[in-house]
Design brief:
single chain; 5 strands; Translation Initiation Factor IF3; alpha+beta; globular
């Protein structure tokens, strides 16, 4: 589910696994402008690692990663 927050979009990927989390993240990043932010939530460590690696490989920037109650929040800035 995609929600528009103030200056960033939010993508809820809880309950999904790789490669779906990676594909949906990249698809959403393609929709936003360079410099915009995307907040993603995943609920397993493998998806967290996969999303981070995919995002970095595509030239985007990981701004922050936090974990609370077994939910990982990743904030990404579109790099190109």
């Amino acid at each position: 589910m995609v929600k528009k927050m103030t200056d960033e979009k939010m993508l809820d990927l809880k309950g999904l696994f790789c490669p779906h989390t990676n594909l949906l993240t990249i698809r959403e990043l393609e929709k936003i402008q360079v410099g915009s932010k995307l907040r993603i939530e995943v609920d397993n460590a493998d998806s967290l690692k996969g999303v981070i690696q995919t995002v970095k490989n595509k030239g985007h920037i990981i701004i922050d990663v936090k974990e609370k109650d077994q939910v990982f929040t990743i904030i990404i800035q579109k790099g190109r």
